[in-house]
Write a structure and sequence with these properties.
Layout: E1 9-12, E2 18-20, E3 34-35, E4 38-44, H1 51-55, E5 62-68
Antiparallel strand pairs: 1-2, 1-3, 4-5
The protein binds zinc ion (ZN).
């Protein structure tokens, strides 16, 4: 899922979940603060088996940014 068009996404500053620009509440942590200044994108399908997910403290499947400013 590293296709172009990621510029249309923003990242939750709390849990790093990537959501589309028209989302106002994070579906993962219910946070409301987002940043468009993020880099890296990782798709987590099975958080319990993903080392990346464990590293980033991701507990729910979805798309996440690696870095959020
Ligand atoms: Zn969040």
């Amino acid at each position: 899922m590293s296709s172009r068009g990621t510029g249309r996404l923003k990242a939750c500053v709390k849990c790093k979940a990537l959501v589309s620009m028209d989302v106002n509440v994070c579906p993962v942590c219910k946070g409301t603060i987002f940043s468009t200044d993020w880099s890296g994108c990782v798709s987590v399908i099975d958080p319990e088996k993903s080392k990346v997910a464990q590293l980033l403290n991701i507990t729910k499947p979805g798309r996440y940014a690696l870095k959020v400013r």
